[in-house]
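Checked the freezer inventory, then went back to the computational side. Two predictions to log before the end of the day. The first one is the construct we discussed on Monday; recording sequence and tokens without edits.
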Amino acid sequence: MTAHEMTEYPSIVPFGSLATEHHPHVGGKCASLGVMSQAGLPVPPGFAITTRAFAEAGQASGLMPSISELLAATDITDSAALKEAAARAREMVTSWRLLDEHQSLLDESYAELCTLAGVPDVPVAVRSSATSEDSPDASFAGEHDTYLWVCGIDAVRQKVRECWASLFTERAIVYRAEMGYPHDEVDMAVAVQKMVRPRAAGVAFTLDPSNGDRSGICIDSAWGFGEGVVSGDVTPDNFLVDKVMWTINRRTISPKTHAHLLTESDDGAAPRVTRVELSDDKVNAPSLTDDEIIAIARLARTAEKHYGCPQDIEWALDDDLPSGSDVVLLQARPETVWSKKRHSVARTTDLMASIVDTLVNPLSARKGAATG
């Protein structure tokens, strides 16, 4: 990237101001948060640190050629060599300094978020948003780092650098190599977003991930933060909601022996998210009420209609918001497994099945998908 190209777009943009021309420079996660914010969906406020900040910090450091040479010389099938190279690459990236111009904008943007929330040193999530994430032919979801409950500008600055460095985890390096993505052609944007205080959280798919059926919305839910659900550390409750009738057609309440919860520190340090064993009364209790299940499903369906394709959504119930208005969306990305398979209406003599299919997948949408 040339210096001229880097100066054509800003280094920090609030979610509500992200324009289409910014999307190539903010990664899939930030772009989605911007689109959802502007579509009126309930998204916690925040801002994107664009790839300009990453690219100019890397250029100023002079270390990118060394990182590229290091990875090019590493045999990714040699686990010890890969581990050493990845650690060295991350060490080099975390040594980068934000340019003064970008650091000033970051400081101002975080201060504005604190003012908006009415909380000094407001807790934020600092989330990686690589330009390769959520691409049509690959999903890098989960390959890069997210940091929760980050408080204070010094901590935010540090976590931004650590998000940049997560381009070079062992998993990310191997995945890029397997998918044919050059290591020196990926950039990292970062989302900084006001934290929610979730009673429950999880994911929602606007199709059934077990069979690709688009007539239902599948919701996974567990107590506390959704990181346990996304990482597979917690076996979530599962619900399937009909998109037309808005009935809950399947419910599985799983034993949830632990959760990722916000805990206070004994030493007076900032609260942090930790893995906590749950009391017996929570283990087998449903993490959502029926009203909450339907509210999540309706928001997921709204997001699907807005984007025009099946979505993989991260959501949370924010305890800081009143009941009935407490569902917030943290992320929406295109579903990447079944969506690659061309949707076709099965031959059937069941008139009702044909009607439901048409309601859920209108002919106009199918034609658009076929020609897009």
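The second is the one RB wanted added to the comparison set:
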Amino acid sequence: MASTVVDNRRQARRGLTVFGILVAVFAAIFQSILAATTNPWWVYAVMWSVAAASVITRLVLNEGFDDVSFRFGPARRTLPWIALGIAFPLVVGGVAYGTAWLTGLARFTAPAAFGGFGGRLLLAATIGTVISALSAAGEEIGWRGYMLTRLIQAGVPRPVFVSGLIWGLWHVPLILTGFIYGGHPYTWLAVLVFLISAVATGYVIARTRLETGSIWPPITLHAAYNSVVQAVFDPATAGPNAAFWVGEEAGLLVAATLVVAAVICSRGTWRLLATPGRPLAVPPGIRL
């Protein structure tokens, strides 16, 4: 038993090393191209490069693909987490942006067409989420379909925190070049606040993956968040300090709301599944 744990830990650490090198190389290439061209189609290459890194790592180390995991699992267990993924950005956006609008920290600008704000919100939470999943899946196959479980198996302290931090740091070059959050008045603060948001969201999205053993809840949450917050709440907000308070994940109110959501969603005992019905091999004493 002890030798199996050691072998699993050693294998996971090898995987993390190869995956990390590939992610860094691909990020340097594709994020540089994206920053230089500002062509939004390169966003797909940037996001899917994370999935590519995990696929190459699995092939190089002969790990297989079973634990990605594309199985949906029992509906009674998976569907509630899918529903949470769709509801999550609606609640976060409503609380954070709603607070900014009501207090005058930012101004609500109702869309004049396409069914108004409510109609766009409904569209973003449904069809928009499906479309957004085409890009979000690229990240989630790598981050939560590979890196998260390997961090746990490798015995890395606080693996959920570390996974969220790495996820956040991966975005930092895009902030520094102004491709994302370019309207924020302080770049250094945008980086700091975004990292807090990424770690907080990482706890929520990690739990959807580990509780179900399926990659579909994380893809749903990631896609819904991008569609709802980035495409509806943020465009409906204006004002000289709007980016400071609610600039998507770099806004102070959004980050604070995400931290509260992470605390709530992290409560209780987590069920750790590699795939639906199969527990994840966890080293003794590991704390998420």
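For RB: Strands lie at 107-108, 237-238, 273-275, 278-279. The radius of gyration is 19 Å. Let me know if you want it refolded.
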